[in-house]
Amino acid sequence: MPLTPDDVVTKQFQHVRFKEGFDPDEVDDFLDEIVVEWRKALAENEELKSRLAAYESGSTPAPAPVEAAAPAPAPAAAAPVEQAAPEDGANQSAGIIELAQRLHDEHVAEGKAQRDKLIADAQAQAASIVSEAEERGREEIARLEKERASLEGRISELQSFERDYRSQLRSYIEGKLRDLETTATSSGSASVSAVNH
What residue ranges do the domains of the chain occupy? Predict the structure, then answer.
């Protein structure tokens, strides 16, 4: 199927998932089609040029004298068509090349814009993540400092409680020992005085 400029203009590429832009393989395949058609047009152009040069030089066989009198104007009329055909083919080829180049430039520019946008978005996202992580780190450090201060206060309270408890326990035990000694001394005196009587 010959490729026309309208085919190039109306070609729709499929969008690719997970990234923006067109499928590079599909674009490459389409550009390959353009190149094939362009080469065909160039080959046809060269063939028509050589046929035209041969016709103009008179190397083509002359028509039969009797029967060819009527068809003779047909090759003469065909000559301008053949001349126009190479120009149309060349113009068509040039148009296809120009369109392909413009499409290529547009896709490259679009790709660069997408790349720059993705990079900017990624940098903004990275900066946001880093900022958020730093903020969380500061909050966590503040929480741990507060918790450490609270634990140090609790340790001080417990140490003070221990000292008070030991002091009270010592006073209590010493008081009981004194009471025991006093009771033992009193009962010893009472026993001695009972023996003396």
Answer: 5-59+77-146
Distance CA(11)–CA(172), nearest Å, equals 102
SS3 19: coil
- pLDDT tens for the 197 residues of the chain, in order: 677 767 776 777 777 677 777 777 888 888 888 888 888 888 898 999 998 888 888 765 444 444 333 333 334 333 444 444 556 667 777 778 888 888 888 888 989 999 999 999 999 999 999 999 999 999 999 999 999 999 999 999 999 999 999 999 999 999 999 998 888 887 766 665 655 55
C-alpha dihedral over 41, 43, 47, 50, to 10 degrees? 110
d(CA 62, CA 55): 10
Report CA Rg, the chain: 54
**15: three-class secondary structure by DSSP:** strand
- Dist CA 8 CA 96 (whole Å): 8
Task: Identify the helix (H) or strand (E) that includes residue 116.
Answer: helix 73-196
Sign of the dihedral defined by the CA atoms of residues 47, 53, 56, 62, in that order? negative
**Is the whole-model pTM more than 0.85?**
no
DSSP code of 22?
A: B
